[in-house]
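can u do me a favor
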């Protein structure tokens, strides 16, 4: 029996993004590299601001943005905000899967609730499936994506067909 479209759609939505909860285990053990044209570290306020072609790499995770602000409390990050035209996030969720790619004008990751907020022309691509809207939110703990199309807008999803069992892949 073939799964219904709504069941496939739900499965695709639930699996559409990779966040820290689904990232490669080895990523969290890797050092974080940050390259930027300019940096301002304000320890008193707990705000670290990187500007100009910002690149962040930790294992398979990479963020590219025009500006990245890291908010900290007692020197521990609490929130990351990346902005750009667009800002770009890429990470491999599992060793046998391709990268998840997310783009938006603004991306915010909150450490406490482990959510990734994508605002302004938000796009997420995973295994060929594409999710677009004005705003997308990914709850990495519950594996749930929610979104809105913005004022008068809609959410657009492109779900790739499932390969039929027993069908041979064509070269």
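np, heres the sequence
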């Amino acid at each position: 029996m073939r799964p219904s479209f709504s069941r496939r759609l739900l499965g695709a939505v639930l699996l559409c993004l990779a966040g820290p909860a689904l990232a490669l285990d080895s990523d969290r053990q890797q050092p974080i590299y940050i390259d930027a044209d300019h940096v301002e570290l304000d320890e008193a306020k707990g705000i670290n601001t990187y500007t100009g072609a910002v690149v962040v790499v930790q294992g398979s995770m990479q963020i590219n943005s025009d500006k990245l602000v890291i908010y900290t409390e007692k020197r521990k990050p609490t929130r990351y905000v990346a902005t750009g035209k667009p800002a770009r996030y890429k990470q491999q969720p599992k060793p046998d899967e391709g990268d998840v790619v997310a783009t938006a004008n603004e991306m915010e990751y909150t450490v406490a609730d482990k959510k990734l907020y994508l605002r302004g022309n938000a796009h997420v691509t995973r295994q060929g499936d594409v999710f677009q809207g004005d705003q997308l939110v990914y709850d990495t703990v519950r594996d749930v994506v929610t979104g809105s199309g913005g004022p008068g807008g809609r959410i657009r999803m492109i779900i790739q067909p499932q390969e039929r069992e027993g069908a041979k892949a064509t070269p």
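The two ends are 27 Å apart (CA to CA). hope that helps!!
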